[in-house]
Specification:
Two copies of one chain form a homodimer.
Chain A: E1 12-13, E2 28-29, H1 33-50, H2 55-71, H3 73-84, H4 88-109, E3 118-120, E4 134-140, E5 144-147, H5 161-169, E6 173-176, H6 182-198, E7 206-209, H7 215-222, E8 228-232, H8 235-247, E9 254-257, E10 264-266, H9 268-287, E11 299-303, H10 306-321, E12 325-326, H11 330-345, E13 349-353, E14 362-363, E15 366-371, H12 372-377, E16 389-395, H13 399-407, E17 411-417, H14 427-434, E18 437-442, E19 481-487
Helix pairs in contact in A: 2-4, 2-6, 3-4, 3-6, 4-5, 9-10, 13-14
């Protein structure tokens, strides 16, 4: 990281290779306050035109971004590998997922159905008063600030799901690059800007802001032109943005996805009949990508007794056979170590650890255990440890599960592993979990978020800042819209979707 | 108003007849902190069962409330007349509107279409990974706090639109009575409670909290069981609730409708050809109900020159012929006087006043005038004066209208009065207004909010705290729901709406 000597002057910073700890060329200039204000003005000016483009023209833009990402995949993946240490195959898949999301939203907005047009015809003869013709349609909010995530340099970053949803809705985007991968962010931004130019989008429809600290992000949220904020990251980061957005002269919505412990409830018969298979799938899920997923299963409810013991033993064996992986950056690694210490201090028993590694940002897979009652009394055991760690909470009686679920805070996901004959008795547990999670899963695992029309990647506080919506799937577009009604309008002045 | 002597002991208060200033029997006990906590616990317990009732059972409850209100209309209107001084005909209409809203929501939830169920079928053969079956549906948020409004003792109060929408969604309601009409609120609450009992709803599905100050409302918003807040009233009140809700350990959404000036743009040809008719309709609209409507047209853009002068003269004539009316209560009247002083101090010219009246809470119709440029420089001219007042802003050139619209803050409504041949040139103005208002109106007036499937009674900050939705019409129900996804669920464990 390099900083210019004079305070207030333009600064620059470099990404750090998490594998070696070395700074990577080139340097990236931190966006200045003046530049940021100009981005706000340009986004506002673009909105006027962009919001009114027919859906198929915005769709062409999104498809051009998708094509550009696919065409640049080699270069993007090479840079992202150096900046994040994520495996190449994973990053290639993530580029495909990102271009796929853009094409999904392009398909969605090809016609106007997503706008939800409502027509309530008038009736001049109605008594006691004539009924007016009233029509309503969704309308984009205005420019949106999108914060890139450390752990998804493509799918939840510069041209990721939030950007795709906002652009699809008709909102210009100012993306804030995550400081962990500025080079990847710059390359992606250049793809978006080239696609915008090629498809004739208004200047200012997209821009990238860069910073290795928090000042630019804070200023971005406070730009008067910004009408919504999207973020994926830590709870501390999300809460800071919420406070800033609420304190603006004009408060704006914040969609912050802040993670959770994603409890997995293993029922007794499932543990007995499929213990080994569950152990293997769980191990794969909690160590996937060095555990750096918001949907990482961080807490597993497992019965006491022989079947649970056997499952735990198999999981311990797999964990010990695993290797430490390189985490995204030094900060993530430091927080992971702190999280492990927090579990230890709260009384969790260390069941197994993988082989350590000498890298500067190595994260070792870790398996913990505690009695379920302990977790009910020690909320530290139920706070997210971002990394390849999971905690087995051993329960003696099924009734404990419902009480545990009733006391849970908001989660992105909750999972049941259960045999068919065990499921009918879980209706109450499912209800309790539906109140506390955005997505409920039976006999699959929470990692791997399907991108589609029914996905909900969200959940009540503190999983997100706004549990009403989702940041993945087509429903994500609704977050960037508001309803507007038109009363007694002549056809030619109505938005096209309301002329029918 | 009567208070018990001992601090901390139960207090009681009485409503005040605004016509006479006299206290009305009986006294109402202020809800104690302990009672309020108990209401929260009961609402939470009710939610567990109520949320799961089939829509048609909740619909039967809403219809029973509607029938109960209609049956009690004489008693309700008699009490409300004494507490609010609103005319009997208006209050009778408002009871009908309120029961109509309840029946509208009952009809909406008779079948499950409103839940927006989405089914994305799985594909085990998909490469590179199998596709899971994912389904999504709306789910109620949990108990909702509803604050009654002073100016609508029925339609925006205890069993008003917010309550109807929340109950329809499956959320128990704790209603906070407006201190101006506790007797009406109590009567309405008793109708709701009787209907809940008659239709077998769980205890705690509805409750009323009372206070003549702010403490009970503040505590209500902070109850951990409350998951959303709905409010119609002043900006100060709405902002206070927003701050409280954001500072909770678990922040919750606040839907506060805080009013606006509802600009009316009179275009030159309309002024020339229909000046008298527009003046008459405007006069009726801004003095309706002693001007005590959120949608009151508080600002009218009128051309300079002969046609505008003639319209202004006719409006002045009508205003002078009008009488002061009794306002809702002493506080509303005091704020109205302060609003008039604010306009005067900001340089508005007093064009005409109605006849004064000797009552303790009389509000005199008032017509003001200022050059449009003055309003652009003096934001005090564009803040709401709640009462029978409107301000003519005279413009010389049509281009001024667009600049004015671009500088407007968020509004509930914006209205164009224009001849057919003037409208095509207003596309830019309509776009600018669509960014700033929840409802756009052509050649009608903003008062009289149609209750239906396409109504939007909302708008960007500061018209509301959350410009994405509406507090009137069927779309209002969505505010009390969140999306939940079910992945790989067996049919029998899915919510009924997702089993198809």
């Amino acid at each position: 990281m390099t900083r210019a000597a004079e305070p207030g002057a333009a600064r620059a910073f470099r990404a750090v290779d998490p594998t070696t700890g070395e700074a990577l060329e080139p340097a990236f200039a931190v966006t200045t306050p003046g530049e940021l204000r100009e981005l706000g003005r340009r986004a506002r000016a673009a909105f006027r035109r962009y919001a009114r483009l027919p859906g198929h023209e915005r769709a062409a833009f999104l498809r051009a971004v998708a094509d550009g990402l696919d065409a640049a995949a080699d270069e993007l993946v090479a840079r992202a590998t150096r900046e994040t240490a994520l495996p190449e195959a994973r990053l290639r898949g993530e580029v495909s997922r990102t271009s796929g999301q853009l094409r999904m939203f392009a398909g969605l907005i090809e016609d106007d159905a997503w706008l939800g047009a409502r027509v309530d015809p008038g009736d001049p003869a109605r008594q006691p008063a004539p009924k007016p013709d009233v029509r309503a349609v969704r309308r984009p909010l205005g420019p949106v600030a999108v914060f890139g995530a450390s752990n998804f340099p493509f799918a939840f970053s510069v041209a990721g799901g939030d950007t795709a949803a906002a652009l699809a809705a008709g909102c210009p985007v100012i993306a804030k690059a995550h400081p962990g991968h500025p080079g990847t962010s710059r390359l992606v931004a250049d793809v978006v800007l080239a696609a915008a130019e090629r498809t004739g989008m208004p200047a200012g429809v997209f821009a990238l802001a860069l910073d290795d600290g928090h000042a630019v992000g804070a200023a971005l949220v406070q730009l008067p032109e910004v009408k919504a904020v999207a973020f994926t990251g830590s709870r501390a980061g999300g809460e800071a943005l919420m406070r800033l957005a609420a304190a603006r002269p004009e408060p704006v919505p914040v969609y912050a996805e802040m993670g959770s412990v994603n409890p997995v409830f293993v029922l007794p018969e499932a543990a007995r009949r499929r213990g080994d298979a569950i152990a293997e799938d769980l191990h794969a899920s909690f160590t996937l990508g060095v555990g750096q997923f918001c949907t990482n299963p961080g807490v597993v409810l497992l019965p006491t007794g022989a079947a649970g013991d056997a499952l735990a033993a198999r999981l311990a064996e797999l964990t010990r056979a695993g290797q430490a992986g390189t985490m995204l950056n030094a900060r993530v690694c430091e927080l992971y170590q702190q999280g492990r210490e927090r579990l230890r201090a709260a009384g969790a028993e260390l069941l197994a650890e993988g082989a350590a590694s000498a890298g500067p940002t190595a994260g070792t897979p870790t398996l913990w255990q505690a009695p379920l009652d302990a977790a009910m009394a020690r909320p530290e055991l139920l706070t997210e440890v971002f990394g390849p760690s999971t905690l087995l909470l051993r329960y003696a009686r099924a009734e404990q599960l419902l009480a545990f679920a009733d006391a849970l805070e908001g989660q992105l996901t909750a999972t049941l592993q259960a045999e068919a004959e065990e499921l009918p008795a879980q209706a109450e547990l499912v209800e309790a979990l539906a109140d506390r999670a955005g997505r409920l899963i039976v006999n699959q695992f929470p990692t791997g978020v399907e991108v589609g029309p029914a996905m909900v990647h969200g959940g009540p506080w503190p999983a997100t800042s706004d549990g009403r919506g989702t940041s993945v799937g087509t429903l994500a577009i609704d977050r960037f819209t508001r309803w507007v009604a038109y009363q007694n309008f002549p056809r030619e002045l109505l938005p096209p979707a309301l002329r029918g």
